[in-house]
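User: Here's a chain of 71 residues. Predict its fold as tokens.
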Amino acid sequence: MKQTTSKAGTPLFIPSLEEIQAASEDMGGFCIACGAQADGVEPDASGYTCEACGKARVYGAEELALMGLVS
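Assistant: Prediction complete.
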């Protein structure tokens, strides 16, 4: 997981291609606000609430790939 900064200046966590592929096989996703992995997330999930940090920044693995958020 790579940490960078968004255009708004907030931390942004971007998974690697390998992490995206593994999450895709297991119906997983990631919180781009804290980097936590989420289970049972639909491939096109967008803005789900993160159980770790409480922010609505969880995206499905395929959705992250389509958004270009892959390191």
